[in-house]
Amino acid sequence: MTTPPHLLYLAWGFPPSRAGGVYRALATVNAFASAGWDVTVVTAQRETFERFTGADPSLEDRVAPGVEVVRIPFEWPAQETDIRRYSRLRATLPPVWSRLRRRRDTVSFPEPSYGPWRRPLTAAAQAVHERHPVDLTVATANPHVTFAAAHALHRSSGVPFVMDYRDAWRLDVFTGAVTAVPRSRVGRWESRLVAAAHEVWFVNEPLRAWHAEQYPSAAARMHVVENGWDPDLLTLPVPRTPHEGPGLRFAYLGTVTPKVPLDELLAGWQLALERGLVPAGSTLTLGGHLGYFAVPQGRLAEALADAAGSGVRYAGPVAKAEVSAFYAAADVLVLALGSGRYVTSGKVYEYVAAGRPVVAVHDPANATTAVLAEHPLVARVAAVTPDEVARALGEGATLARDVSPDATERLAVLATSLRRDRQLAPRVEALTEQVAR
Question: How far out from the chain centre does Cα 185 lie?
Fold first, then answer.
């Protein structure tokens, strides 16, 4: 009997983490397991997500049977809110403590908060290899410290590794500014890692092209592996739940961060109501966490509370198992994203699969525009301003009232091509063949 190849997957965020990249991590692990690999995941302990970022326990049930998950401690002093755990220095001189902590964090690896995880993660990866020899490591960022652990195993034991970027390390995806020059510690680390990597993955072509320009000798090993929607969470077509009230149901689903143009969206919504661009009695429901951490960001919560009188509703975090029901209760989906040509979205694929008209509230140069290029029911903004948002919301209302059978059929074909497993399949197949040889 042939021994299955063994994949080591290194990820800080893995179920029950609710961070955006967790869905990509979960799908990647399951794709390799489905292809016949033994898979071991090394990730942070559950308490990390339960205390600091928020958790979605329903995701753990979706990890493929047979996948071994090794959890190791992760300390996150910067996010600690229990003052009983504060040192005297932190309690009396917080700014001094913060500067010293940041300096300490980056001694081992140039990544604040995550740098100290390099040693325990590297040790855990080596222990897995000694117990069950690893054929391939896939490390996903961020944080980028996972790349360092994969590189260490490559140097010590010759295990090839894949770097899976979700965003970028030296590039601000929103502004396009370079955040670390090549000769900086970050620049030198990235150059070393990319040079040694077997493959490097990016979520969109603009990010791949930027990195290929920075590291031309590695360009042939760089691949676009888009995000996608998960067929085990959405059964197509997504049904529409009955709606007895007046107006239309607009909905946004995703983490609301300071990068999301929430103010422009809410102001545009108010204008659309006042100008009669959307039917009277229409509602705008937002679902998802407010900010990156477990404690909601106050300003975002206040903005939503202030808009409640205009039919704006905040549904709170939506567990992955409840996503289908959320989309079923919507007539029009609103995709509000930060600006920047390198910005992509995981939710846009679910929006396509849901089969609803989409109001795209983001910079037209955003990389998500390419995903929606063949969507027949998109209302786009020329710029992210309240007036443009109001106009697009009105266009979305018009689209919702006249969805043709042809548009529905085209959407179904597009959705099938954007399944997450289909985005991963070419790389999983290629790597499986390479390991077999």
Answer: 26
Determine the Cα–Cα distance for residues 180 and 189; give it in Å rounded to an integer.
Answer: 11
Percent of the chain predicted with pLDDT > 70? 98
User: What is the SS3 assignment for 283?
Assistant: strand
| Residue 53 · residue 294 · CB < 8 Å | yes
- Angstrom CA distances, 126 to 149, 172, 215, 432, stand at 9, 32, 28, 22
Distance of CA 386 to CAs 276, 311, 400, Å? 15, 17, 21
Domains contained in the chain, CATH given: 6-227+420-436 (3.40.50.2000), 249-417 (3.40.50.2000)
pLDDT exceeds 50 at position 1? no
Q: What is the mean pLDDT of residues 221-239?
A: 89
Residue 69 structure tokens: 């998950």
Q: Are 356 and 330 in contact (CB under 8 A)?
A: yes
Determine phi and psi for 10, rounding to 5 degrees. -110, 120
What's the rounded Cα separation, in Å, for the pair 300 and 412?
A: 35
What does each C-alpha distance from 361 to 384, 385, 430 come to in angstroms? Answer: 6, 9, 37
Res 296: pLDDT: 57
Distance CA 247, CA 401 (A): 11
Distance, in Å, from the CA atom of 287 to the CA atom of 256, rounded to the nearest integer, reads 9
d(CA 269, CA 307): 9
- Separation CA 417–CA 42 (nearest Å): 31
Task: Give the span between the Cα atoms of 13 and 290, in whole angstroms.
Answer: 18
Mean pLDDT on 170-177: 92
In the predicted structure, residue 111 carries a pLDDT above the cut 90: yes
Residue 69 vs residues 44, 159, 211: alpha-carbon distances, Å: 10, 20, 31
CA 372, CA 351: separation in Å to the nearest integer?
Answer: 10
DSSP category for residue 82: -
Considering only residues 340 and 1, tell me which one the structure prediction assigns the higher pLDDT.
Answer: 340
Q: At what angle do helices 405-417 and 347-354 cross, to 10 degrees?
A: 140
Whole-number average pLDDT of the chain: 92
Using CA atoms, how far residue 215 sits from 183, 186, 222, 318, 331, in Å, is 14, 14, 10, 39, 45
Token pair of 19, please? Answer: 């961070």
